[in-house]
Design goal:
Elements (H helix, E strand, L loop, with lengths): L11 H11 L2 H14 L2 H13 L2 E2 H8 L3 H13 L3 E6 L2 E6 L2 H10 L14
Antiparallel strand pairs: 1-3, 2-3
Helix pairs in contact: 3-4, 3-5, 4-5
Length: 124
């Protein structure tokens, strides 16, 4: 539990339970990174689109999230670095798909799967 001699403890059992609940600090750091990744609205929108409509191209993502291609590409670089998405070549087109199942579960809680209309034209 570390050096507790310099701290005043009110309830030792609760303090130990709290330390156990926090767990490995590296895991806490990783989760903080996941929540930071989800905490920016543009990235969250991109992840929701990739999760529910992927694999999807940068251009199609840009239309869906209302950002330009360069901004989407920059966000996707970060998401690839966080290992949340991967790119796949489909002929001349690069498409992105979600790779982290835990992020996928979180995204499903944020926005349950909408009714999708693959093959229909965008009318917004």
């Amino acid at each position: 539990m570390g050096d507790l001699a310099e701290h005043r403890i009110i309830d030792g059992d609760r303090a130990c339970d709290a330390v156990a609940a926090i767990g490995d600090r590296a895991d806490v750091s990783r989760w903080a990174g996941v929540f930071a990744m989800l905490g920016e609205p543009g990235r969250l929108a991109i992840l929701l689109a990739v999760h529910h409509a992927g694999p999807i191209s940068v251009s199609d993502l840009a239309v869906a999230v209302g950002m330009n291609d360069a901004a989407v590409s920059q966000a996707l670089r970060l998401l690839r670095h966080q290992q949340a998405v991967v790119s796949e070549r489909d002929g001349r087109v690069i498409r992105y798909r979600l790779t982290d199942p835990v992020v996928g579960e979180l995204l499903t809680r944020v926005r349950p799967a909408p009714q999708l209309h693959h093959g229909s034209a965008v009318t917004h």
